[in-house]
Fold this protein.
Amino acid sequence: MTYSYYKKTFEGETMPFAYLDKDLLDKNIKDIIARSGEKKIRIASKSVRCRWVLQYLLEYSDQIQGIMCFTAREAAWLAGEGLDDLLVAYPSYHPKDIAGIFPALQSGKKIYLMTDLNAHLERLQQVAAEGGITLPICLDMDMTTRFPGIYFGVYRSSVNDLGSAKRFLARLKDCPNLRLGALMGYEAQIAGVGDNVKGKGLMNGIIRTLKRKSIVEIARRRKAIYDLTLEMGFEPEIVNGGGTGSLETTREEECVTEVTVGSGFYASHLFDNYKVFRHRPSAGYAIEIVRRPQKDIYTCLGGGYVASGTYGPDKIPLPHLPEGCTLVKNEMAGEVQTPIIYKGNEDLALGDPIFMRHSKAGELFEHFKEVLIVSEGRVVERIPTYRGEGQCFL
């Protein structure tokens, strides 16, 4: 899409605003379904944060089933709004958070809480017993690969081999109110690490080499732990893996029943940096030009929506349109003003928009109460984000 297309589409809108291009979203969905092969697709709500979009994705294709939530409170809320098959990706420890999902479970909804420590099992067993309920859980398997001097992955689960998995499952047998319903292994070093970053040729090559070696270990470990659960008498109905950046490899694992996708639907700019795929930037936001301190400098109001994670330029939002815009290096995107360098052919003036892309999908919508849905050059709907529905989970 061009600058003039979006400028005309949003004429008269008050800035800043967030938008979602439904036409590009649809193309991303089709590409993601193709990339996932025959595996079911679970939506990572952290990277969506809009109930309307979650429902739209679930209704788009039968291959898209279930949601990966980021907290138990989010799962309880979504269940109350009619959604089902909710896998909570991070551990829940506070008794109120755990008990908060009991009404949904008692009504027949499927919710799985994440675990990897005996302390998780002990807390969940205690709360479940007090509530007189059988609680479905998910075992989080560590997918990190250790090379000499390199910890290739993220610090997530403590279950990183057959020994630790066996000890965990043995303890689970002593928890009558818990049921192992799912396994999950998130290969963050494959799914979330770009290997085609502009200007980083040497590092890209190193990352690709590490990925190739890591993929073999990931598949072996996931299969071994899955087989162990069966040998010890458990019958998990879900084996989850992958992310937007690893669909082509995770889909090849026979034991995996589903892959998780979130960022690929919006295609935030971190996901421009992969060799094997490229999705379309369907989500973004607009900031308003309010100053022109120099000939080629256009200063906009607001815009500093910096992403979480390690500090670095890749976490800064980037100008998207008009093409050729760049940030001022010693200011970047600021809370109250963002100066833009532009020397292109568009005749920019005060009041005109600059369209920006966030670094991480989903996090952008924490800054807006509503999203403008665009299709065929028109704003066709205005929908609330989680924040717009009064929800803030993390």
